[in-house]
Design brief:
Layout (H helix, E strand, L loop, with lengths): L12 E6 L9 H8 L5 H9 L3 E3 L2 E2 L12 E6 L16 E4 L3 E6 L16 H9 L23 E7 L2 H12 L4 E9 L6 E10 L7 E4 L4 E13 L7 E8 L6 H8 L22 H11 L6 E9 L6 E5 L4 H11 L5
Parallel strand pairs: 7-13
Antiparallel strand pairs: 1-4, 2-3, 2-4, 5-6, 6-7, 8-12, 8-13, 9-10, 9-11, 11-12, 13-14
Helix pairs in contact: 1-2, 6-7
Length: about 350
């Protein structure tokens, strides 16, 4: 399927997702998110509930359906909406708003802007619905007001511009890397060093164009500073850890790629994570922690700090967002490993 001219619609298509041995026992929604990474979790949930997912000739609507190796699921994608985003009444958690900009706490599963596979139900649609159609003139109709983005399944703070002056000011700050951005991440295992800096070139993987990877040549410079905040499990071989990451640059999937390159991918990451074997002779706490971690339906990444210079107030604004419930429950289950 290919895009047609702007303003037209795309035709209906069908995608096939084939389960392999590594996917045995996975929840269907988690498997589909890994097999079809260009679709949001909320979009896949809509397709499931709408009867668009088939296993053979049987319609599967249950997101908890457990996948078996060899299962071939067919997902029928309906035609997209018009190219120009429309305002929609989608709830937003507004952290701060004035006439120039708006800061929101984005939930996991919400795509930032419309694209193939996610024609509506995005943050852009929500912003137009909340701020009015005037948003369409800020920075272009495709991504009005958007100066940076979070991956669809990353939660946390995001700022959008409501005026051209704010758009230009914020874009310049991002380009100059003067924006403060801090993330909490939960990863498998724990880095050897409690603090560190990862610097590399990041670009499209030569083996999978939907993934980014660390490259020896080409790509763009990327730098991430990290600090291990907590380790969960045996001191000599931690089961998982809670990490704070701060971005010096802002490349696509940067934290996810860098932590995977370090050998400690995010728990729940469908693109860069990998299946883990449950430890033998587990205690009840270990069983609970492994189950919660293995079933975590998204990458465990939350943007909890955002700071920038206001474009007209000439002062620094800084915001913090608490962990969402699923992230907090994951950490709580892992902390159970450290209890006597």
């Amino acid at each position: 399927m290919s895009d047609t001219e702007s303003g037209t619609k795309l035709s209906q298509e069908a995608r096939t997702a084939l389960a392999e041995d590594a996917h045995a026992g996975w929840r269907l929604d988690r498997f589909l998110a890994a097999a079809l990474p260009d679709f949001s979790r909320s979009r896949l949930q809509q397709l499931l509930e709408g009867g668009a997912v088939l296993l053979g000739e049987k319609t599967i609507k249950d997101a908890n359906h457990r996948v078996k190796p060899g299962d071939a699921f067919t997902v029928t994608i309906p035609p997209t909406a018009p190219a120009i985003p429309q305002g929609q009444d989608i709830p937003l958690e507004v952290i701060y708003e004035d006439k120039e900009l708006i800061v929101i706490n984005k939930p996991a599963g919400l795509v930032v802007h419309p694209a193939a596979g996610n024609p509506d139900g995005t943050l852009v649609n929500a912003l137009i619905g909340h701020c009015g159609p005037g948003m369409l003139s800020i920075g272009g109709e495709a991504r009005p007001g958007i100066v940076h983005r979070l991956d669809k399944d990353t939660s946390g703070l995001l700022v959008a511009a409501k005026t051209e002056r704010a758009m230009a000011s914020l874009a310049k700050q991002f380009a100059n890397h003067t924006i403060e951005r801090a993330y909490n991440a939960v990863v498998w295992g724990a880095p050897r060093d409690s603090t560190g800096r990862i610097e590399s070139q990041i670009g499209r993987s030569p083996f999978d164009r939907k993934r980014m990877s660390v490259l020896r040549a080409g790509g763009k410079k990327a730098a991430t500073r990290y600090q291990v905040l907590e380790k969960f499990g045996p001191v000599e071989r931690p089961f998982a850890s809670l990490i704070e990451c701060r971005l010096e640059t802002g490349r696509t999937h940067q934290i996810r790629v860098h932590l995977t390159h370090l050998g400690h991918p995010l728990i729940g990451d469908p693109q860069y994570g990998r299946a883990r074997t449950p430890p033998r002779g587990r205690t009840d706490a270990e069983t609970n922690a492994f189950t919660v971690a293995a079933d975590f339906p998204r990458q465990a990444l939350h943007a909890f700090v955002l700071g920038f210079q206001h474009p007209s107030l000439h002062k620094t604004l800084r915001f913090e967002a608490p962990w969402p419930a699923d992230f907090a429950e994951l950490v709580a289950a892992l902390r159970g490993l450290n209890k006597p």
